[in-house]
Predict the structure.
Amino acid sequence: MKKIDVKKIAVLNRMTIAVLAIAGLFVISFLAFILGFQGKRYLFYFESVDTGNLVQESRWLQPKKFPENVLEYADELVLGPKTERCRPLFSPGTKIESSFVRGDVLYVNITNDVLRREGRACEIRTGVDIFKNNILRTFNKIHSVEMYIDNKTIFTETD
């Protein structure tokens, strides 16, 4: 008759329970992640403080239909980067007063706080160019971006 080693069986049972528990936690956390957030990933580009090159940053935004998704993206751009070593596009306090899409053109009116040039923000022209490039790169339905400061046109295409 074969002798049964009870200690080996106890060790195997503990290991099996531990592996099943870890696998169960993984499955539960994965399902919670998938079901819990139904966002859309967007890429944002900001100027690096160190090199002056553009640095990519990704953010998750709530899914919205066109043109609301463009307007929310524009608001996020004006808020600036989350990455510490990147420059905000505009001076602190700059906000979008109004924005709308008509046809394939995005119209954005920002506050005159941009003129103060405080903090470590980009030059105004650079900030406007990066803002426009972000929008045009991200949304193929937008073919042009018109920007205003307190309802006055800035940097037309001929500038």
Remarks:
- The beta strands are 40-47, 54-61, 96-102, 105-110, 144-149, 152-153.
